[in-house]
Design goal:
The protein contains five helices and five strands. Strands 1-2-3-4-5 form a five-stranded antiparallel sheet. Strand 1 and strand 2 form a beta hairpin. The radius of gyration is 18 Å and the shape is globular.
């Protein structure tokens, strides 16, 4: 009986985590190119075949410049590009040893909302930040957002951002 209860609890936990990944509380910020500031563009450190351009809204930028905690309503947008490759599929780099941007693959959005972190298990908690991935046209993509959550979760000292220092410039 205990074994069945444990299996049931594990199954319910996995279903709850999957449901959290499907929650759609973040909307595509259609105006990010005109209303947000592009604060950083670089080869993506987590993926050796991608380039990312990062944008942030005024709330995030002002708080970062003042050395404060980024407030609820802060939004970070990442345009994720594939890197150009040669005929053998190897990533092409420039004379500056940087990847060369090719097609826009996805738009990643990180947004902070009050109480958003409360629903996640500790290993996926990013303060009150959550994530969404959209196509270049703004349609929500069915991606595993727990991969985003687990990658950013250890970054508590930098408010769960890889680029906090750049945001403050």
């Amino acid at each position: 009986m205990i074994r069945k209860a444990s299996a049931l609890m594990l199954g319910l936990g996995l279903i709850a985590t999957a449901a959290l990944a499907d929650e759609q509380r973040i909307s595509f910020p259609a105006n990010y190119k005109t209303q947000f500031q592009n604060y950083l563009s670089l080869d993506r450190v987590q993926n050796d075949d991608q380039i990312i351009r990062l944008f942030a809204n005024d709330a995030a930028i002002e708080a970062a410049k003042q050395g404060r905690e980024l407030p609820y309503g802060s939004v970070i947008v990442g345009e994720v590009y594939k890197a150009k490759t040669d005929e053998d599929g190897k990533v092409v780099t420039s004379s500056l040893d940087r990847r060369i941007r090719d097609k826009l693959a996805a738009i990643a959005v990180m947004e902070k909302g009050e109480g958003w972190g409360d629903k996640f298990p500790e290993n996926l908690r990013n303060g009150d930040w959550d994530f969404a991935i959209f196509s270049p046209g703004g349609e929500r993509l069915n991606k595993d957002l727990n991969a985003c959550r687990s990658c950013h979760a250890p970054l508590a000292k930098t408010q769960h951002l890889f680029s906090l220092e750049h945001l403050a410039q």
